[in-house]
Design goal:
three-stranded mixed beta sheet, binds 2-acetamido-2-deoxy-beta-D-glucopyranose, alpha/beta
Length: about 450
């Protein structure tokens, strides 16, 4: 017995030694790799890459599409790029990714952007936006991007004429799950289960109880969310300005199905495009076409690789019972999504047969650019040269384009505004008494 323990003890030592050697070896390999990467820029710097030099650009796909669309010459469309837009940025609908695209467009085209005051990041959200929530400007406003509650009358009063209203929605059940996690609701509402779909299940089963705890005054760690505000009930419709009783004392049409239908119809008239997060690539291509922008304009950066679609496929789903319960709780959002899921496909249908080819083409371009931008240390100073296609003249994507895609642009837009109109950097100079004080 004692002998066995001794042998085991001895064996442990041998194993420890082997592990040590292995660790040293791995560290060595790692060091060599890192120094290889660090020195790589000199080797690859200034290279002119074809998309096929990066993973995943498959020209064979193109022969499937037929020569006409892909290798055919660029057919310029008879339209002028639209440079006036208001993007209604609702929470947890890939709006940060889309916001990045729109901020870059604004930055590159030197647009006049509606910017939050001082160091704020929202335009009054989730309260109704007022003139106190944005920096004044002597220039006509071209772009509104940051979080604001939609009010067409108010927004049209200061945006350039012919402003295109844009937004993106997400299937309300998935949106609900994502929102609970993002706003740390399980912890703040003291839900007895904290993780995974069991926590969501527990929350839905006792939703009134947990909502009350979450919304109570002085709840900790709610950061930008004010007292009495629900993040689980009709958040998308509230963001689109539907009168749903927040802030308290304002009209609430939640239970008036006819008024809800009318409001959705009015939105449909006022918005040029309502995109869908589940069809992110299709949404961007539709955006590009309706705004008469270029393919380069709609390239985007996601910090964690993988399309929203493939991530959605891996994400745990609400059980049918929980979804049904949430649908009763948040019925207005389901009506909203269902309507714009139809109009989205109607708009796609009007685009003609090459639309889906362009989406496939855009995916390849985006894949090459993602691979390039994620390995920017290796490709510093290089560029990808994309050939002419049916939808686009030739264009280049350089490492400085990657920087524009990854940099936080809101501070840069504010900086540019402060250089041009320093008198408004500190607006409002005196504290104004107001009904609601947005937190962020
Ligand atoms: C942007 O536009 C403003 C107003 O037209 C102009 O004064 C400014 O120089 C421009 N800035 C850049 C970087 O083009
Ligand atoms: C929308 O804006 C208009 C004009 O500023 C204002 O009169 C109205 O009260 C606003 N509506 C809401 C719901 O805040
Ligand atoms: C928009 O057009 C209307 C009438 O066409 C005009 O009165 C108004 O001044 C214009 N607004 C801006 C910001 O150009
Ligand atoms: C959280 O819930 C537990 C029971 O699940 C209870 O014992 C505890 O007092 C609650 N904490 C707060 C802050 O409500
Ligand atoms: C609006 O009305 C609905 C249904 O009566 C209710 O559940 C909801 O809490 C109300 N909204 C607010 C913000 O009070
Ligand atoms: C959206 O519309 C598509 C096409 O009609 C349909 O297949 C899909 O089930 C709809 N999604 C939802 C969540 O309603
Ligand atoms: C792309 O870069 C190449 C090499 O610098 C240049 O010759 C070409 O004109 C660029 N194309 C565009 C569309 O800017």
């Amino acid at each position: 017995m004692a002998y066995r323990r001794l042998v085991q003890h001895h064996q442990t030592h041998v194993w420890q030694f082997v592990c040590l050697l292995l660790s040293l070896y791995l560290l060595g390999v790692l060091y060599l790799n890192v120094s290889y990467l660090v020195h790589q820029p000199q080797r690859a710097g200034g290279r002119r890459l074809s998309p096929a030099d990066l993973v995943g650009f498959d020209y064979r796909l193109y022969s499937l599409f037929g020569e006409d669309f892909i290798l055919g010459r660029y057919r310029p469309r008879d339209c002028k790029p639209r440079k006036n837009f208001a993007f209604i940025k609702c929470m947890k609908c890939a709006t940060e990714t889309l916001g990045g695209v729109l901020r870059r467009y604004s930055y590159v085209h030197n647009l006049s952007v509606v910017l939050p005051v001082k160091d704020k990041i929202y335009l009054g959200w989730p309260f109704p936006m007022t003139p106190l929530d944005h920096r004044p400007s002597g220039r006509e406003y071209n772009a509104l991007i940051e979080h604001a509650i939609y009010n067409g009358t108010f927004m049209r009063s200061f945006m350039a004429n012919g402003t295109a209203f844009l937004t993106i929605l997400r299937e309300p059940g998935d949106h609900f799950v994502s929102t609970l996690n993002y706003f740390n609701v399980f912890e703040i509402a003291n839900v007895s289960v904290r993780h995974g779909m069991e926590a969501v299940h527990e929350y839905i089963r006792n939703i009134e109880k947990y909502e009350t705890i979450y919304k109570r005054p002085a709840a900790e760690k709610r950061y930008c969310i004010p007292d009495g505000f629900s993040v689980s009930k009709n958040l998308l419709s509230q963001c689109l300005g539907m009168p749903l009783g927040f802030p308290s004392g304002t009209p609430n049409i939640t239970d008036n199905a006819r008024a809800v239908r009318q409001y959705i119809k009015a939105l449909d008239k006022e918005f040029l495009l309502v995109m869908l997060m589940e069809y992110f690539d299709e949404s961007l291509v539709l955006l590009r076409r309706l705004m008469c922008w270029t393919i380069k304009d709609i390239l985007f950066h996601v910090s964690n690789v993988g399309s929203y679609r493939s991530k959605a496929a891996r994400r745990p789903q609400l059980s049918p019972d929980d979804r049904a319960a949430h649908k009763r709780w948040s019925s207005v959002d389901y009506a909203l999504y269902s309507h714009f899921n139809k109009t989205f496909w109607n708009k796609v249908g009007l685009q003609g047969p090459d639309f889906h080819y362009e989406v496939a083409h855009f995916r390849q371009v985006q894949k090459a650019v993602t691979s390039f931008c994620l390995n920017i240390a290796k490709y510093a100073g290089s560029q990808i040269e994309f050939p002419e296609s049916f939808w686009s003249p030739p264009f280049n994507v350089s490492s400085s384009d990657c920087q524009l895609m990854t940099a936080p642009l809101l501070p840069l837009l504010k900086k540019r505004h402060e250089e041009l109109e320093p008198q408004y950097a500190n607006y409002p100079k005196v504290k104004v008494k107001r009904n609601y004080q947005p937190l962020c």
